[in-house]
Structure formats: structure tokens, C-alpha cells
Design brief:
This protein is mainly α. It is built from six helices and no strands.
Length: about 110
Amino acid sequence: MLWRVASKLVPVLFLFLAACEKESTAGHPVFVKTYVELSIATQAYTSTPEVRVARSKILEKYGYTAASFDSSVTALQNDPKAWIAFQKSVSAYADTLAAHADTLYRDLLP
């Protein structure tokens, strides 16, 4: 009896966890910051070795491996609703950075 109940609940639990993972990744502030910083680094550095070094440092800073981050991006791209929500979060964070750009890097100016 218990085995039958468990065998029916396990697939439901996996679907629930998968849905939560996609949703939490899409709006998760750390994932959004990582994505934006990686995008900025890709645009800022012209040489491939510099991009690789910057990418590695950013991923390490936020606790991702290249494989785990790329896997999350792929999962989001395969879910149109999650991808749209994620892109809205990315845009909002990028707008926040742009609005404060003059103060973010003030200490770097001569």
C-alpha cells in the first residue's frame, strides 16, 4: 500500500521541484547578477583569454561552475515564460546599474 502511494507521489514531487527550480532561477537575484556581469565582461574584453578569465572569476564569485550556469540558461531558454521573466529581471538590474553608473566607478576616475 505504502509503495503504491509513494510510486505515485514521486513523479509529482519531481515535476514540482523542476518547476520551482526554473522559477527560482529566473528571478533569483544572484543568477541575474551573474548573467548581467558575464554579459558586460563579454562586451568589455576583446580578447578571448581575457573573456575566459573574467568569466571564470565572475562564476566563482557567485558560486557557479560554467556547466551549472550554462545548464540553467539552457533550461530557461527552453521555457518561454521563464525566459521572459528572467529577461525582465535582467533588464531591471541592468537599468539599476546604468542609473548608478556615475557613482559605481567614481573611485576609479582620476
